């Protein structure tokens, strides 16, 4: 009895099917090959220039390579055909890189037609659907879909299966200072921490609370309380300014930006007063002393 193709029978069937995938690499038109699996030499495949992900975990990549050595490629990659011996990756860069690490010379692939915009959209959406993508990578992918694929937020939500508010929450992360974005990307803070910090308009206060999170391992609830306290303080009626109060306010803003802390400048008569530079840890103090070149 002729063995049926394992495709369409579920992941279990694929795992149980130990027979090699038939080598069907040829020079047929891509439109004729869309529904088939083609075994394509790795040397013929170039990486996707629209790949939104710039970092792959080396340990996870090695684990995937080890799995490929044992089980082979379970899920084919997807490519588009540029010429008889030139293909461009649409999705599956981790599988492609791991296959090279595993010593394979060819890889099973679906071939489909796509223009540059479709390539970008497919790569971004495929990337967003990965469970291990960090929040900043998701936000950047959403932003690229909006700006480069000319999508509206409602359309974007439909494409990625998220409601508009969820999409907007991710996009707002890109308004955070670079240090906080990096902390979220590197999992030093959580999405909950970041969403609390977003509600602060004062960048110096955002950075101050961010450093407190790192130094004291603050919970999301504690950060939310600090944010509420900071916002109340900001909204409190200001004391009548001194004669040169505007200049002092400008100076306070410049110093806060320079030191990355919520610097306070107080003066009762506009002639004398004090400057307070807060720090949340010894490392933070050393950072301030470095700025002061002391």
TrEMBL record:
Record keywords, A-Z: Chromosome partition, DNA-binding
Return the Pfam families for the record: HTH_ParB (PF17762), ParB_C (PF23552), ParB_N (PF02195)
Q: Which InterPro entries match?
A: Chromosome_partition/occlusion (IPR050336), HTH_ParB/Spo0J (IPR041468), ParB/RepB/Spo0J (IPR004437), ParB/Sulfiredoxin_sf (IPR036086), ParB_dimer_C (IPR057240), ParB_N (IPR003115)
Extract the ranges annotated as region (Disordered): 1-32
A Gene Ontology biological process noted in the UniProt record is: chromosome segregation
From which source organism is this entry? Answer: Fulvivirga sedimenti
Quote the cellular component terms of the Gene Ontology held in the record. Answer: chromosome
GO molecular function terms listed in the Swiss-Prot or TrEMBL record:
DNA binding
| Protein name in UniProt | ParB/RepB/Spo0J family partition protein
Family from the record = Belongs to the ParB family.
Q: Tell me the ranges covered by the ParB-like N-terminal domain, including all copies.
A: 38-128
Record's compositionally biased regions (Basic and acidic residues):
23-32
Superkingdom of origin: Bacteria
Mitochondrion among the record's keywords?
no
């Amino acid at each position: 009895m002729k063995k049926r193709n394992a495709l369409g029978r579920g992941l279990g069937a694929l795992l149980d099917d130990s027979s090699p995938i038939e080598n069907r690499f040829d020079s047929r038109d891509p439109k004729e090959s869309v529904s088939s699996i083609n075994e394509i030499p790795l040397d013929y495949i170039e990486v996707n220039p629209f790949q939104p992900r710039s970092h792959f975990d080396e340990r996870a990549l090695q684990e995937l390579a080890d799995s490929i050595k044992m089980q082979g490629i379970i899920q084919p990659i997807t490519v588009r055909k540029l010429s008889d011996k030139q293909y461009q990756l649409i999705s599956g860069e981790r599988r492609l890189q791991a296959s090279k690490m595993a010593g394979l010379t060819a890889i099973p692939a679906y071939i489909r037609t796509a223009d540059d915009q479709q390539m970008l959209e497919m790569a971004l959406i495929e990337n967003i659907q990965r469970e291990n993508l960090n929040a900043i990578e998701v936000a950047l992918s959403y932003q690229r879909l909006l700006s480069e694929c000319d999508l509206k937020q409602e359309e974007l939500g439909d494409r990625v299966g998220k409601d508009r508010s969820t999409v907007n929450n991710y996009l707002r992360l890109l308004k955070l200072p670079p240090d906080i974005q990096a902390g979220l990307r590197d999992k030093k803070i959580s999405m909950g921490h970041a969403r609390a910090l977003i509600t602060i308009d004062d960048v110096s206060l955002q950075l101050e609370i961010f450093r407190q999170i790192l130094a004291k391992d603050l919970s999301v609830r504690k950060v939310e309380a600090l944010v509420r306290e900071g916002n109340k303080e900001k909204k409190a009626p200001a004391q009548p300014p001194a004669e040169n109060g505007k200049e002092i306010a400008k100076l306070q803003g410049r110093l806060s930006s320079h030191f990355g802390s919520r610097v306070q400048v107080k003066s009762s008569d506009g002639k004398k007063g004090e400057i307070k530079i807060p720090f949340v840890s010894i490392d933070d103090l050393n950072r301030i002393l470095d700025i002061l070149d002391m």
